[in-house]
Amino acid sequence: MKRIFISDEIKTACPELIIASIECSVINSADSSKLWEEINHLTEEIKNNSKLDEINRLPAISATRIAYKTLGKDPNRYRPSAEALRRRIIRELGLYKINTLVDIINYVSLKTGYSIGGFDADKIEGDDITLGVGTADDKFEAIGRGELNIEFLPVYRDFKGGVGTPTSDEERTKIDINTKNILIIINAYSGNEGLNDAVQLMKDMLQKYSFADNFNIWNSNE
Questions:
Q1: d(Cα 115, Cα 111) in Å, to the nearest integer?
Q2: Which of 46, 109, 115, 205 has the greatest count of CB atoms below 10 A from its CB?
Q3: Quick one: the chain helix, strand, coil %, rounded to 5?
Q4: CB atoms within 10 A of CB 197
Q5: pTM of whole model > 0.85?
Q6: Could you give the CA distance from residue 115 to residue 103 in angstroms, rounded to a whole number?
Q7: What are 71-94's pLDDT values in tens digits?
Q8: Are 46 and 111 within 8 A, CB to CB?
Q9: How far apart are CA 32 and CA 214, in angstroms?
Q10: Strand partners, 4
Q11: Which strands make up the sheet holding 128-133, listed edge to edge?
Q12: DSSP secondary-structure letter at 3?
């Protein structure tokens, strides 16, 4: 099981932050029609009951934006992924179909408001991951968007370098169709309320759509 550490800099800036991690074995697939029935139902619900100017009021998203501002990053320019997903839905741009595991993560992020990191656990260098703050010297190839300036962003690093931020994960450790073992990190900058429900939802979805087993679940508050 990967060990996750929170730097003093993050603890000071984001005292309410709690991290939950899920590691498990999975069988990925290119697509799941049953999963997409659930995703489409959720996106219709969001479109019918949400407005653009209300997104930032959701507790998990609001707390992540506050963390960005505290660390010195503009959340309107570098939006947390949960916020960006909801904006796509309300603007009727739709969601990309990536693969079943990534689609599950996007579903749970949309449902809960948490920005969630998803990694191929076998691509992570070493057993330890540390959550710190990005610097001007960090090189980070964001999935699907090229080099990302992660200075002042919360960033998870393995032995080799950055693997994930609440805005985007890194190409080097991304989940693909051949992924057999995953690490998922749920970033709860708003604290513990609702986090256990999000973990349970993620576990249920992984079991339902990717035959997940051999679970290791960890919470930084325990």
A1: 11
A2: 115
A3: 40, 25, 35
A4: 11
A5: yes
A6: 14
A7: 999 999 999 999 999 999 999 998
A8: no
A9: 22
A10: 129
A11: 3-6, 128-133, 154-157, 162-164
A12: E
